[in-house]
Amino acid sequence: MVTILAEKPDVGNKIAAALDKIYLSNGETVEFSKLKANEKAVKSQQNRDGYLKINYKGHECYVTWGYGHLCTLKQAYDYDPSYKLWSKLPMPFVPNNYEIKLRTSSNSSWDSKVERQFNIVKGLFEKSDLIINATDFDREGEVIFAYIYELANCNKPVKRACFTSQTKEGIIEGFTKNIKLGDDMKLTEQAGRMRSIADWVVGANLTAAMSLKNPGAGVMSVGRVQTPTLAMLVNRELAIMNFVKAPYWAIEAEFTTASGESFKAKHQKEKITEKPEAEALFERINGHKGVVSDVKKKKVKKEPPLLYSLSALQMDANSKFGYTLDQTLDIVQKLYDDGFTTYPRTNSQYLTEDMEPVVNRVLDSLSRVPIYSDLIVGRERKFNKKHYFDNKKVESHFAIIPTGNIPKGLPLEQKRIFDIFCRSVI
Q1: pTM assigned to the model
Q2: Per-domain residue ranges for the chain?
């Protein structure tokens, strides 16, 4: 028996439908292309069972899922209940071993849902001969799986499905061509664990320490990333507030050559802080002829822009459309979830060196779209391989590109972002 763990239910149903089909309790089956039309029935069965049973390479297989993070690091008070009072917390508090627990919240019904799903996953793990990790293919995805695997006290063999697009073809490729041994991802998992620990050590200790030191201020939240970022914003704001205006003068002249060509030029002393000096300089040169003392010419070769990482996309989406970072992330996440673009949380603007056929397929697909056809059809496809394809500049994920699935009737925000991706590839 095989168990496949997805990060969330929506990805679970895509995996099940891509690798086989979804078998509904009423006897009907749902193919990948019919997921949208049967969304209500599929979700109802998922909520009821906590898994989808399929056939995978001739094996009995169960596709199950988390709700993102089912598990998390224990809090200080989980090690010692007295630490609920921050005044009792030894500073800094660093556990000998970082233990895992189920993720809890202030919502008891949500906690019950998490506990039920974890028990379903744990039960499937215990019955399995093989477990396939199909969470998001990055550090966070590795940690999500590793925490569940650890808390379930599991020792079954693990493989890693590596897919970066949620199309049927992308998922199948992730479970065939791009499947790895679980041990191949250990360094990525450890990097994710270390980041979680760093967040915990800094956040838990310094939040408690700062809050105790300033009792009238309430909880003073401190974070590994949040606090230095906030400091950068504060320092910039202070620099703006404390800026003192100072007047200066500049001299600009218009010249006309013997052939009648006119051009403007600024004096090499661009900012003159004393007005009498500026006036004297102006009087000395006004009305006189200039002499060209030097001419420099150079050819500049400008490369076409790189593809999009998440941060590059967020910058462009903000400047073009005024979208915030979170708005852009939500938009591109939806495009990814619906199978129109590749994995969005990437810091790379490059593709791997074996992706030329993928780009060709995407261009073939886009060439059938009227607004892009004139940009593609009849033009030579000559890839600048060094500029776009570089394995050394791709870590977990390559640049964001369209998958070749062409959407219809997208909301304006998604349509704009999808268009950006299409034109970047073209």
Answers
A1: 0.79
A2: 2-192, 252-285, 310-425
